[in-house]
C-alpha cells in the first residue's frame, strides 16, 4: 500500500510539473540576446524597435530621464554595416515632440509611429498615429492618419497587415487601453472594430504586432492573473507588463497566452515583433542585475559598471530565434 501511495504521489508531481511547464511555455534551451550592445541597447532607456524587411535598418524609441518639465521620446535609427550596427541618429521627422513606437509596414515603404505633435487639423496634445512614406533614402513629411483612426484619447501603438488592415491600441473608444482594427477598403480606413472580449479585457492591451497574414497577434498587457510574478525585492504595487499571443482561427481570436520565459520575466517586457522573413523575434525588456538580497556584495566599481551598461533596469532590445519562440505556443 505504501509503495502504491508513493507511486501515485510521484505521478502527481510529474504531471503537475508537466502542466506547470507547459503553462508558462518555458524553453530553457534558448537565451534572448541583446541587439547592438552599447549602440542600440545601452545604459539608456530604449524600447519599441522595428526592423526594415531586409533586417539591416532598425528604428527604435529612446526616452529621456524624468525632469521637472517632461520626458522627451525620440525615434532613432541604426544601420547594419559589415556586421556592426552604426552609431544611431535621430530620425529626420523626430526630435521635437514625444515620438515613439515606430513600426514598418510589411513592405517597408511606410513607417507608422505615435506622436503628440499637432498640425493644421490636429490641435490637441494627446498622442495620435502618424505615418511617413519612403522617399528615396529619406522620408516624406509626417501625416496624421485622421479622425477615423485617431480619437480624442491616446493612441499607443499600431501594426499593419499585408492587406492594409491597421491594428492599433487606443484609450479613445472604451476609456481603457484596448486593441482595435480598421480595414483598408477603396483607399480608406473603415470604422474600427474591437478585437473582442477574448482579447480586450479590464486589463490594458497595447503594443500590437499583427502577423502579415493576420494569423496571430502579439501584444503587451499588464495586471493579468497569469502574469509572471514580480519576484523577490520588487515593489508589490508595481504592475509589470508581459507579452501575450492570440491566434486567429475560424473567425475568432483564441484566448491570449502569456508567452512565458525566456521572453517574459519578473521585469517589464513590451514591444514584440517578428522579422519579415519570420526567423527572428524581437522584444523590449527591463531586465536588470539586481536580485535582493544580492548573491555577492556589491563593490563600488562593479556597481558603477552595472549601472552604466545594458540590463540596468531600463529598456533594452532583445532577439531570439522565432522558430523556438513559437514552439509549443499554438
Quick overview of this protein structure:
By secondary structure, the protein is mainly beta.
Describe what this molecule looks like in 3D.
By secondary structure, this protein is mainly beta. The chain has a single domain, classed as Neuraminidase, CATH 2.120.10. Helices cover 11% and strands 36% of the residues. The strands form 6 sheets. Strands 2, 3, 4, 5 and 6 form a 5-stranded antiparallel beta sheet that branches. Strands 7, 8, 9, 10 and 11 form a 5-stranded antiparallel beta sheet that branches. 35% of the residues are buried.
Compute the separation of the termini in Å. 41 Å
Just name the CATH architecture: 6 Propeller
- Give the number of helices: 3
Structural class: mainly beta
Shape, per Cα inertia axes: globular
Order of helices and strands: HEEEEEEEEEEEEEEEEEEEEEEEEHEH
Features:
mainly beta, globular, 3 helices, disordered N terminus, five-stranded antiparallel β-sheet, 330 residues, Neuraminidase
Which helices and strands occur, and which strands form pairs?
Blueprint: H1 2-24, E1 33-34, E2 45-51, E3 57-63, E4 73-81, E5 84-85, E6 89-90, E7 99-104, E8 110-115, E9 128-135, E10 138-139, E11 143-144, E12 155-160, E13 166-170, E14 178-182, E15 184-185, E16 188-189, E17 193-194, E18 204-210, E19 216-222, E20 241-249, E21 252-253, E22 257-258, E23 269-274, E24 280-285, H2 300-307, E25 316-321, H3 322-326
Antiparallel strand pairs: 1-25, 2-3, 3-4, 4-5, 4-6, 7-8, 8-9, 9-10, 9-11, 12-13, 13-14, 14-17, 15-16, 18-19, 19-20, 20-21, 20-22, 23-24, 24-25
